[in-house]
Specification:
It is built from eight helices and three strands. It is mainly alpha-helical. It has one domain. The protein has a three-stranded mixed β-sheet, with helices on one face. Helix 1 runs parallel beside helix 2, helix 2 packs across helix 4 and helix 4 crosses helix 5. The chain is globular, with a radius of gyration of 16 Å.
Length: 194
């Protein structure tokens, strides 16, 4: 069952863990170990990746948000639910964050499309992890909002774990459908000839 309105944080965690495991299997990527934690998060974050392991404080992640400034939704551009957080941390894993020099692909690819996907892109590594999250959770929407670099992702990881059209992924939330349509329009606006 895909994530939808009414899914608890625990449900989103279990669905997200299964989703990233499936993605790893399909793309021959070693699955990082996922360690759900209790209590107060380390470093003021709800999750982090280090040395092949994702540490996640599920209850500190966002719930699905549909009102006000709460925009998190699985498969949308903004997703700070456990489902999206796991995919984001998987992004650090595939960016090869376990080496002393930091990410490999993030530093090479950001100059090709430097615009941040969300406000959580303070550096190349987070920029990449946010893009990767959307690539894993809603590849159809990713293709539409990041047309300049989508081919790099497909060349590296050619198999989708999520095969539904972006509108089906977001079908449970009219708010996120409308916002995604706007993001797609913005991505496809071409500058006027000078």
């Amino acid at each position: 069952m895909p994530p939808c309105i009414g899914s608890s944080k625990s449900d989103l965690f279990e669905m997200g863990k299964a989703h990233i495991a499936r993605w790893c299997e399909l793309n021959a990527v070693e699955m990082p170990r996922v360690n759900p934690r209790r209590g107060s998060p380390d470093f003021g974050v709800c999750a982090y990746y280090r040395d092949g392991e994702i540490e996640i404080w599920v209850q500190s992640c966002a719930a699905i948000g549909r009102v006000g400034r709460q925009w998190s939704y699985p498969g949308y551009v903004v997703d700070r639910t456990p489902y999206g957080v796991l995919a984001h941390e998987l992004g650090h894993h595939v960016d090869r964050q376990h080496g002393p020099a930091g990410g490999v692909l993030s530093h090479l690819w950001r100059p090709l499309d430097a615009a941040p996907l969300t406000s959580y892109c303070p550096n190349d590594n987070e920029w990449f992890a946010e893009l990767f999250r959307l690539f894993v959770t809603d590849p159809d929407l990713f293709e539409r909002v990041r047309p300049r670099i989508v081919d790099l992702f497909w060349q590296e990881w050619p198999t989708k774990a999520e095969r539904r059209p972006w509108s089906d992924v977001l079908a449970d939330s009219a708010r996120h459908l409308a916002a995604a349509e706007n993001k797609i329009r913005q991505a496809n606006v071409r500058p006027r000839p000078g």
